Amino acid sequence: MKKLLLAGLIAVSAFMCIVEANAAIPKPKTVWEIKAKKNVVRELVGDQGQFVWIRDDDEVKVFDGIKGGKLWEGTLKGFNEDGYYQLLNTDSPKPLYVYSVKKGLKCIDIATGKEVWETQLEIKTKKFLRSYSTENGFLMEFDTDEQHYILLNLADGKVIWEHSKSEGFTPYPKYVEKGLPVIWTFGDRILMVMKKKVSLIDAKTGAELWKAEKRWPSDAWGDNAIQEQDGKLLLFFEEGVGSVRLSDGKELWYREGEVEEANKSFVLDTPEGKLGLFAFKDALLCYKVDDGTILWEHKKDMSESDRIIGTIEEVYSVPGDDRLKLFMSFRSSLNPFKQKEMGGWITANGVDWKTGKVVYKTV
């Protein structure tokens, strides 16, 4: 649970439930409770959800997300409500909060409320678009005549590097107009989709590692358009999916087809390396993540006994066993009057991961 969705004067509660074998299931027991007013910002942050961040304008309270006790409360000194403010490192042991003050930015440690740094960097909030977290910093994007990109160091708030339109960093207007991302970050690397090319940027230096002018994702999948798989990028298109090597931008494979679900791709460890599985509406694809080699495909025109086509729900592999255990869901036809799905079912399947041969099917 990353966000606490509360309405009115309600409570944030944690529950503890212990169940023993053959014992009746006890009722949930409230461990802690925090009252919060309507329309205040509430976030559960930290790598273990150990902090509850509650902000009402410039007033802040932070609670222990495990035990529920108050850690600290106070006022954000110099807080500019019309400026920039952002939670950063929300999945780390040390989450931070950065916000605008009259002349620059200030960063505090969420665990203690203590100031980490303050910078005189001027933030033109009317031109600010988005920020993106990197391994050791955060990238700020501004929609100015020069289309600025500024990377700040998380440790001290200093500018590591900045780029502008005059240097060729011009986002694709179609993305900006629709408010969809033009930038994805992967650790200390930044992928920038622009009008005439795609570039991979080293977040530590701002240097361009590679650029490409080839087939790249449209805005069909929004935030899910690009996903990382063990040093490779899985790219989603209007009608297809492909893989590109992150180190040099080389396209490893591409397949046309209606993508069933953008979040249903899987990577498995096998004795011969990592395998990737991807389900299209009318096909199932198995490939080597390392070099993109297609090992096997199940297609609609194959006999029903030789193929498994549907949405992947879960995949298991057992050491010493060449079979993959695939749990696939299938949807029935639409109700012609209400245009809603009539239902569906899930099958358990065994497939030889080397050849794709179907070993068994169980409804």
Provide a concise account of the structure shown.
This protein has one helix spanning 173-178; strands at 10-16, 29-36, 41-45, 51-56, 59-64, 70-75, 85-88, 96-101, 104-109, 115-119, 128-133, 137-142, 149-153, 159-163, 183-186, 189-193, 198-202, 208-212, 226-229, 232-237, 240-245, 251-256, 265-270, 273-279, 283-288, 294-299, 311-317, 323-331, 344-352, 358-362.
Low-confidence stretches: 1-21, 170-181, 332-342
Distance separating the two termini: 32 Å
How would you write the strand order of the largest sheet? 3-4-5-6
**C-alpha Rg, in Å?**
24 Å
How much of the sequence is in beta strands? Answer: over 45%
Structural class, by secondary structure, is mainly beta
Assembly level: single chain
Instruction: Give the biggest beta sheet.
Output: 4 strands, antiparallel
Count of helices? 1
- Dominant shape: globular
Give average pLDDT, whole number: 76
Determine the fraction of residues in helical runs and give it as a percent range: under 10%
Q: How many strands appear in the DSSP assignment? A: 30
What features would you describe in this structure?
The chain is mainly β and 363 residues long. 2% of the residues lie in helices and 49% in strands. The strands form 8 sheets. The protein has a 4-stranded antiparallel β-sheet with strand order 3-4-5-6, with no helix packed on it.
Furnish the topology, listing elements before pairings.
Elements: E1 10-16, E2 29-36, E3 41-45, E4 51-56, E5 59-64, E6 70-75, E7 85-88, E8 96-101, E9 104-109, E10 115-119, E11 128-133, E12 137-142, E13 149-153, E14 159-163, H1 173-178, E15 183-186, E16 189-193, E17 198-202, E18 208-212, E19 226-229, E20 232-237, E21 240-245, E22 251-256, E23 265-270, E24 273-279, E25 283-288, E26 294-299, E27 311-317, E28 323-331, E29 344-352, E30 358-362
Antiparallel strand pairs: 1-2, 3-4, 4-5, 5-6, 7-8, 8-9, 9-10, 11-12, 12-13, 13-14, 15-16, 16-17, 17-18, 19-20, 20-21, 21-22, 23-24, 24-25, 25-26, 27-28, 28-29, 29-30
